[in-house]
Design a protein that fits this description.
Elements lengths: L13 E7 L2 H11 L4 H4 L1 H5 L10 H14 L7 E9 L8 E12 L4 E9 L5 E10 L5
Length: about 140
Amino acid sequence: MKGYTIQELHVGLTVREEFPVTEQMGLEFAGVSGDTNPVHLDQAYAASTRFGGKIAHGMLIGSFISNVIGTRLPGEGSIYVKQELTFVRPVYYGDTVCVEIAVKELIKEKNKVVLSTDCYNQKGKKVIAGEALVMPKEEE
């Protein structure tokens, strides 16, 4: 695993990674986070909502963004400073989410990079629109 420095990044650099979303992930996320909202865990309850069934926690999907930032772009040694997320549509258990991270802006004098952090379902529909501010690792 290699992390990029600010000098190695350029606007437009993009990475994508897919994540299957399982009910087991939802159960584990609920256990760790304490978010036991029945729309994520109770099929009978969730079926009565506008979603028609259980949906994954939004922040579970957001954690996939953190995964890609911390391991791929900018990668190892990077520090998350800020994240904005807009949940565009629900993610259901059984969906596959594609996280797409792209460099939008370099702030070289502050060693910071602005990233678009968008997520799509297996049908290519955007499920999260986001933007992050990250400090890449420093030059060695």
